[in-house]
Amino acid sequence: MRDLRRRDPDQKYYDPEIETMPRAELEELQLGKLQDELKFAYEHSPYYKRAWDAAGVKPEDIKTLKDLERIPFTNKQTERDCQGVGSFFGELCCVPEEEVVYMATSSGSTGVPTMSPFTQDDFDDFQHAQSRLFWQTGMRRNDRYLHGMNFALYVGGPDVIGAQELGALGIWVGAVPSARLLWAMKQYQPTFMWSSPSYAWLLGQKAIEQGYDPKKDFGSFKTFIISGEPGGSISTTRKAIEDLWGVSVYDFFGLSDIYGACAGMCEYKDGLHIIEDQILVEVVDPNTGEVLPEGEKGELTYTTLSKRARPTIRFRSGDIGWIDKTPCKCGRTHTRIHVSGRKDEMFIVSAVNVFPSDIEHVVRNEKGLTGEYRIRVYDKNYTTKYEVSVERAFGSDEPYDQIAKRVEGALKTHTGVRPAKVIVYDTGKLGVSAEHKAKRFIDERKHNN
Length: 449
Prior knowledge:
Layout: H1 16-19, H2 23-44, H3 46-55, H4 76-82, E1 100-105, E2 115-119, H5 120-136, E3 144-147, H6 159-165, E4 169-172, H7 178-188, E5 192-195, H8 197-209, H9 214-217, E6 223-226, H10 235-245, E7 248-253, E8 263-264, E9 272-274, E10 279-284, E11 298-304, E12 315-324, E13 336-342, E14 347-349, E15 352-354, H11 356-365, E16 369-380, E17 383-392, H12 400-415, E18 421-425, E19 441-443
Parallel strand pairs: 3-4, 3-5, 5-6, 6-7, 16-19, 17-18
Antiparallel strand pairs: 1-2, 7-8, 8-9, 9-13, 10-11, 11-12, 12-13, 14-15, 16-17
Helix pairs in contact: 2-3, 5-6, 8-10, 10-11, 11-12
């Protein structure tokens, strides 16, 4: 791995040539890498060769970036169907097992966990991307980085190496009980930490319960990185965590199918810059698969440009969002993605599309609440209804019915549709808090049975 510790800590960009490359040059670079990636996948993956032959397309037919639209999509089901077929890693894998040096798996939250293999070059590219994103948040070699992400087969686990590559001190704590993590935070006085939004919030509440003032007693912190849930891109959620800990919060986005983090915020926090020299992003209509123009909301779809163990080609992520290719105020030219939520968690009430992130925005912004919430979606009289449960803040004496009425009104104003009910619990009684990733969405609609 390259020794990059000698970078000037005052330089703005980790890789200035790549990060600020003019759009035309960047797309020329992408096209060359894409053509090479497609040729490699076609020649070495039984699945890709079979699928593309059936679609009547070959790698040499892709002469422009737009021609990528001719290539068939893949998704999680594709990975599941191919896994273990013909070899341990299956028909999507393009290298023999002895060339794979690391594997992660998905969480399996939407089905059977899928394996994600990496060659040594894949892994080095992965960590170089993480270093770039860390640098983008202000991390430098004099920082102490506490890694609070799960190490157990989770693709975000090795990201700590990306912090070390740029020269920061890596503190490998991982997914430990809150008391142990708070001890490490107090003992080692890190400046950076990475966790999920829900856990960053929960940890602050745990600290208060143990008699700490998060801002004063953990004053070494200057930055939290959060990922794994939509909350990081919701301004009210970020502000709630920032106000609780006295830190600056940056959102990262990753996929087990590609990297621990594929995109991250810069200081302007207007979307997440994707590592576009390694990953192409498209937005497609969730129903038709048609590629949508820049700025229109649809399903985010990704193609790797240099991954060898398992090239990921036109992978439909299930995430709904949009992209912005205009240069950012930070000077970076790489596309910014905006993620609204999961396709399978969107629900329609009175012809209005609603995402859990819309509801989180309201709950985090309303005073007198802890910020915890749960959404229940169900069918009644052939229509979709939703109800929201919230918690009254500790020490509040506001009547429950008054809180419910206030939250109902705020939800109606923000989403355009009033919930069927708002249920108010006392602090800690809702039961959605989780050590690392909260389950807040319950879908009881009949079509899911």
